[in-house]
Amino acid sequence: MMHHKIVVSIPIILALGLLLVGCSVHNRLTDSTNLPPTPTSTPMPSPTPEPLIFDGERAYLWVQKQCDLGYRITGSEANRLAGDLILAELQAQGWSTAEQPFTYRATPVRNLLAWKGEGTQAILLGAHYDTRRAADMEDPAVPVMGANDGASGVAVLLELARVLDWRASGSRIYLAFFDAEDNGRLDGWDWIVGSTYMAEHWGELGEPPLKAMVLLDMVGDADQQLYYEGNSNAALQQHLWNLAAQLGYDDRFVAEQRHTMLDDHIPFLQRGIDAVDIIDFDYPYWHTTQDTPDKISAESLKAVGYTMQAWLENTTAHDTPPQP
Ligand SMILES: [Zn+2]
Q: Potential cystine with 90: which of 65, 114, 171, 177 (Cβ 3.0-4.6 Å)?
């Protein structure tokens, strides 16, 4: 059920179909309701996929599916299965994929990358899919389930992979799934190991330069407040928060700085890329045994996912989000 796009064929004449190429999703919808009378010649059926809108409930299912695998600790079987699940879904949605394996402190690490589209510039959306091996804010003998800290960002990216009209973006779109973000300070591990590796090696396989990078981390809290993050690119951050407000999410996207994070956006910022960390760090279950799917809401996942969709598809203020 998660793996099938709903495609509705709308018969329109070929010439009109060509005229509409390049219009936004919303323009296509509007124009198709105002078709001129059909000419006398036989109309050419031209299938037009129905515009897809980010679905918070579907995203929530991805949180659940990841947590059902267990603790996705770097180097573990559950981590490997989570990576395989992500790759399978991306491929089912027609994305090109690549794996980026390497070894860190004798532990196998695997970043995942997916892309669609053409262009000489690219935009990267990222999230980490590993989970912390010790809930050291509460009980270090127990790992973190990571429903919010890990699974939420991945869930938004996987639902975006289903709905995104990448053609409207004018850029190649990359989705990155970082491994080994979250064992920092445990047995001498660094934070952000996977993203650091990906940023260092960006372009080696012909990837176009990045004009922007947005990180989604801890974006699923049912009690959601997304503040400006202190290391993020200020202009891009303001742009995204303004867009979220135009979409009706100004109660969730608070345009005030609150936290400053060492997170997976840092290696990209250090390479001169405009990068933003969308993170809700006011989460009482952070690095505890209580970071579980019952703390997550579909509405919160949707607020972030739909904002990302609107940004990448260049839709503007007059578009309002459909009700969840
Ligand atoms: Zn964490």
A: 114
